[in-house]
Amino acid sequence: MTKPNYFANIPAHVRYSDITPNAKLLYAEITALLQMNGVCFASNKYFSTLYNKNKTTISRWISELKQKGFIKITYTYKEGTNEIDNRYIQICYDGIDKNKRGVLAKMLKNNNTINNTNLTDSNKKGRFKKPTIDEVKNYCILRKNNIDAEAFIDFYESKNWQIGKNKMKDWKACVRTWERREINSPQTMSKIDKHLNEYEKGKKYL
Fold first, then answer.
1. pLDDT value at 70 more than 90
2. Is the dihedral of CA 183, 189, 191, 197 positive or negative?
3. Which of 3, 40, 65, 95 could bridge across to 89 with cysteines, CB 3.0–4.6 Å?
């Protein structure tokens, strides 16, 4: 898989902690993947592929970060079930000196600007590249729509990523087209409201 080229940050309180070096590296990766709302949506499968480690190992690193209070994890569940729908990883500022907290927040903000510029422009340059489920999911949550990322991927995989007889040029434009088709549905609006409520609850941890 293509490796991200964003900046990563490991503040001193994490760098000099007694967690394993790989857990510190994962913390840095999380900072590199944060979006403008301060949340990382990447799955253990994504990290597993990125670092060529099994998901059990990734889970152990995440547990180290969580137990030390370096990250906060929030889950949302599929309606009427105990099945996890989304996982949100957020950076915790508790226990960080107030001045250092401001420096870290500024670093993350600058990095988020780079990340989102890449999210916006990635399909405007070069040849078309199929998005991953995480990329579609992140973009949909960023736009606060209700599109199912897996359904989107499956649909266009079945079409060989073509629009009619032409090869797709911009998958984000297709997401926005799906969004316009579904936005007036009462069921869609209800689900969007639910998602926004979950997001608002998670914001207090930023």
1. yes
2. positive
3. 40
Q: What is the tens place of the pLDDT at every residue in 132-157? A: 988 898 888 877 788 889 999 999 99
Sheet containing strand 84-91, edge to edge, reads 39-40, 84-91, 71-77
The amino acid at 83: E
Kindly state the average pLDDT of the residues 173-179: 86
CB burial readout 104-125, b (16+ within 10 A) else e: beeebeebbeebeeebeebbee
For range 9-27, the mean pLDDT: 92
Rounded Cα–Cα distance for residues 124 and 118 (Å) = 10
CATH class of the domain comprising 1-121: mainly alpha
Q: Where are the beta strands (DSSP E) in the chain?
A: 39-40, 71-77, 84-91, 162-163, 166-167
